[in-house]
Amino acid sequence: MAAILQIVDRHAGALILELNGWAGDSAGFVKRGLNLTEGQLADLNTNPAAWSPLSTPTPLGRRRITVPFILVGTSADDLGVRVAKLMQATRGSWWLRVRRHGASQDSWLQCYGCVPQIDSQVTASTTAHIAQGTITCETEPYAVGARVDGGGTVGQDPAAAAWGLDINSVPGDTATPLLLRFNDPSAFSLDGMGAFISVRRRQTPANLTSVKLARQAEAGANPVGANPGVTIAPVTAADFSGASGVRATFSPSYTALASGQITFAAPSFTGPDVPGVYRLFVRVRRNPSAIGQVLVLKPFINGALIVPEEVVVPAGGAPIRTIDLGLVQWPAAQPATIAAPVANPSGAQTSSVLLQFWRKSDGAASVDFDYMAWLPADEDAGYLTLDRALPSPSTQWVVVDGYQHLAMVTTASPTVAHDIIGQSYVGQLPTADWTGGVPRVGPGNNRLFVACGTGRDTTWPSALNLNVAYSFWPRFTWLR
Amino acid sequence: MAYVPVSPGATTWPGIYTPPGADEHDVGDLYGPPLGTPPREALLVKFTPPGGRGGSVVRECPADLTFDSTAPGGHGSMQCTIDWPDGYPPPEALAVAATAQVIDRRHGGTIWYGHVIDPGYTRTGTGASHQVSALGYHTVLDTEARVLAYVDRDLGQWLSINDYPAGTAQIVDDLSLPQHPGDWVEPTTSVIEMTYPQGASLDASTPSHMTVQYLPTKYTDGPDIVMVLASVQGRSAANFAVRLRVRNAANSVNNVYIADYDDLSPDPDHFYVFEGAGDWTTVNARVGELRFEYSGGSDATASRDWWLRWANLAVVFQRVGQDGANTPSSSTYVYAYDVVNDVIGRLLRQKLDIAEAIAEPDTLIEQAAWWGGVTARGVFDFIEDQYANAYWAVWEPRAGVLPRFEYLPWASHPRYILPPGAAKIALAGGGDELANRAVVSYQTSRGVPASVTVSGYVQELDRAGIVRTVVVDLTGEGALSKSSAAKKGLAALSQSNVIRSSGSATVTAPIYDVKEGRMVEPWEIRAGWPVVLADGVLRADGGTAFGLTGARDGRSTFRLTEVQYSASSGTAELTLDGGARNLFNRVRHPVPRRKKTLAQLAREKAGSTPRK
Description:
The structure holds 2 protein chains of 2 kinds. Chain A has 3 helices and 33 strands. Chain A has helices spanning about 75-90, 185-190, 210-215; strands spanning about 5-10, 15-20, 30, 50, 65-75, 95-100, 105-110, 115-120, 130-140, 145, 150-155, 165-170, 175-180, 195-200, 215, 230-235, 245-250, 260-265, 275-285, 295-300, 305, 310-315, 320-330, 355-360, 365-375, 380-385, 395-400, 405-410, 430-435, 440, 445-450, 465-470, 475. In chain A, the strands form 7 sheets. In chain A, strands 11, 13, 27, 28, 30 and 32 form a 6-stranded antiparallel beta sheet that branches. In chain A, strands 15, 16, 17, 19, 23 and 25 form a 6-stranded antiparallel beta sheet that branches. In chain A, strands 3, 4, 5, 8 and 9 form a 5-stranded antiparallel beta sheet that branches. In chain A, a hairpin with a 6-residue loop joins strand 1 (about 5-10) and strand 2 (about 15-20). Chain A starts with a strand and ends with a strand. Chain B has 7 helices and 37 strands. Chain B is mainly beta. Classes of the chains: A mainly beta, B mainly beta. The interface between A and B is large, with 76 and 61 residues.
């Protein structure tokens, strides 16, 4: 099969101009198929199409492509029309569809506006209406392959399989951004939501299961201080992971700032997948009277506070919140790797965490602790928040665009015809906000983590799963 | 997981094959968290329209991105250039007051947080761009201002209304009045003297009286008077009454203190009165009055000079707590934390998240009244003059919505360790200018010179057994008590030493964050903690991996007062102020002040520019 080189109107879009036309076609560029070097996209004329190396060794660089061509028209007028079309097509941003001779996969390359250099040879021939030239333009650093779609239901109770969604066998040769698409009527009927979304690309991401990344609260700890008026006991709660947690009961004689503490055992995660930076979350329920008060949390490892400052949960908001306690590394406070060329990669031990807490108000109240979770946070991570329910959650989609790190709401899946919903003077449209880096998937296997419940204002029921759909376009550093 | 190559299948080129025994595996990849990431791989800038509604603008690390943090201050300033397509109107997200953030895409954390002050819209023939400047929410402390007063001992605020023309009321110098036993401040030599001269007519029907009024509260929206403390002394004789009265804004009067004139000699009467049961009941007291009144039953002529002296006058004002509720205050013991809490409760509570721990400096405040109005920053600058071992900062919101306000003591534990090779370090000298003793000259009263000698501990000089003395001149500051002069002298001595002992470090590679127990990239470094230069002396004095302990040695441990990050060079410029080379474990950051301090004058004299 001959190589393909076409100007198309978008990624996987309709043909605009054939750059490698066949002899006998009514019009177009001169047929070069027979002259293409076997398996190469070369020798369109006498020079090969050439794609420069990355201008910088980062994903932000650009490249330059040079495509020599000869343009042949059926008539002098037709040649003029073809040249005009080429000029028009390359004026703004344009797409090049590329496939090597013998290959079965297309790539698309986004190119930026340019002016093709064309020499017109004025001849007396009535049959050879030829314009010869070269397209030289800046391009995106990566060619992209055909879109890959996927998705699944992501659980939110770490005692079962939670948070993880495997995205395996990703083609391409470098990490590529995800387009996350959410259509989940029950989730987006909630009056706002928040989720922490991250990814693990290295090693064996499927080893990072929620059971190994979370620990239930355990009631074995004593309050700190002489008589702080805090007692700690197990509690049964339907909305808790495993239906159980720990309740800290503040007595009527409790004095503000007297602290209690509970411990969370080290998670059971082992092996060379462990070393990394994780974001520490704790799921907390503030029962009436504590809801309207300030709650202070301080996580400790080995007697040392592991966040620079105390974590303050302001008064009000959702009774149950998953509170971000900051970043921790496994192995804690140790080098994460051995630089010497040892035979086996280093694993790491996880660490238990002591959580100290107090209220800033006197008197009786109670606060429940469900579980502590460690979610990967060293490749890409961010927060999705919606401040209210979608007006029509069954048809509307929440979209997180990894190409510009923005979230929005659409009328249908962006993989088909859709509208982006704008703000209106009537009705209360939710604002979808993304803060952070949208996960990229790397070649091979990946696990996407979606942990709901980080929203300020609405409790996420632990039994509520979230439907997650994704698309990505594999990236190729080598133009195939 | 590494890339699994799709099998190419049987080669069509005969003679090319994988040799026997050579079994190709997947590409291996990195173990452990990525380290040494270039900023362009990790940083995002995000702009959100004011109010949070509408489309945001996010860009991957602009090449010219710079931002900084300071202590005190928190997130300082941020600049970058955002390209914007030609022909588009400037977006809402780049308007003035839009929220600006720098985000670390690896973990989703906020690196810098503030608001746009200048969208810097630039349009040329070839396109448009925004050279955005943003400032952290420390600006709230500049834009929240009001009239504030806590305790006013300034006799100049008392005005004679001179309603008995034959008599006089004036401020004179007198050494005779002792310290008020209920007050902690030793007396200055200024007193208010009221005199009925010999031969003056004394009216009984409308009793002759002489009044001095404290007026600043009446015409401002400042706080109410809640307490007045004074000592009063007079000549022993009958037929005069001595009063202290308060008025509210509507001029309704409450007589609070009434003494007989003949009880005031020879020892003065020390009294204090405050709003509440047993004293005065008028709420919203706005005027204080001292009154010397004829109380005889019939008209008379003054048979000799009758005089009265008021000293140790202190007016205390209503304070609020961090929650904005009134807190009772019935003494002149006004602590720095009272002022801090009041400023938070009055000015910052609605604008910033103030639920974080707030340090409680217990320095006693002798005089604090800003009748011309003051910003919150002005008050914190004042507090820093009194107590320099804590700093304030405004950081990004965490679990709440508003930016986080912190007022924290300078931690004694180092947070960052700069390993050899990760930073270029330049320490300033200045050892020849260190001093551990100061002769402080000041005025006790109008024009009367006085001095006090103070000494402090400077490790370097102490080790060498050296005493060096400098002169600190406070005569420009008006009448001061001895304790006040000593305190200010110590602060000035400390400040001048600190500014001479500073340095900088340029961090180019990941360094160890003791607090978080991990390596951090240069852009993650924040001001407000001590740093250890491991190029210097490595500590071997204990502590845990998460919390180093041990005394400073003056050579390798410093306080980090400013961090400037530049994405183009990928480096963080650390400003090191202090360490053990400063006096008395105090550190000062050169922040703008209402009045020029000695150190500022010294710096200006030396030709360096004060920091913005």
